[in-house]
Design brief:
Pfam family, one: STAG
GO molecular function: chromatin binding
Organism: Jimgerdemannia flammicorona
Strand content: under 5%
InterPro entries: Cohesin_Scc3/SA (IPR039662), STAG (IPR013721)
Structural class: mainly alpha
Order of helices and strands: HHH
Radius of gyration: 22 Å
Protein name: STAG domain-containing protein
C-alpha cells in the first residue's frame, strides 16, 4: 500500500521541473487520472472505516451485555472472551485505517494539492 500511495502522490502532485510551455499539458491526463484514482481509493477506505466502526459498536454493546450478565463472577465465558478478542481486532483495524487515511490527507495537503 505504501508504494501505491507514494506513486499516486508522486503522479498527482508533482509536475516535471521547468516543463516547456507546450509540454506541460501532456502530463495533465496522468495527474487527473491519478487524482481520480486516489480520491476513489480514499472514498473506498472511508466506506470500509464506516463498516468497521459500525461493527465495533455492535461488538462493544454485545460485550457490555455479556459483562453485565456475568455480574460479579470472576470467570469469563467463551462468548465474552471471543467478543473481547473481536473488539480488539476491530479496534486495531480502525486505528490502521485512520493512519492510512491521515497519510493520504497529510500527503496531499502538505504537498499543496491542486485538484
Amino acid at each position: 500500500m505504501d508504494r501505491f500511495q507514494s506513486h499516486l502522490h508522486g503522479v498527482t502532485l508533482n509536475r516535471p521541473p521547468n516543463p516547456p510551455k507546450n509540454r506541460s499539458s501532456s502530463f495533465r491526463p496522468f495527474r487527473h487520472t491519478s487524482t481520480a484514482t486516489a480520491l476513489n481509493l480514499v472514498s473506498a477506505l472511508c466506506d470500509v472505516a464506516r463498516i468497521v466502526q459500525n461493527e465495533l459498536e455492535v461488538v462493544t454493546r454485545q460485550l457490555q451485555a455479556e459483562q453485565k450478565k456475568r455480574g460479579d463472577r470472576p470467570r469469563i465465558g467463551e462468548r465474552e472472551a471471543g467478543l473481547a478478542d473481536r473488539s480488539q481486532d476491530l479496534h486495531g483495524k480502525k486505528v490502521k485505517l485512520g493512519e492510512v487515511l491521515a497519510e493520504f490527507f497529510d500527503g496531499w495537503v502538505s504537498a499543496g494539492w491542486r485538484g
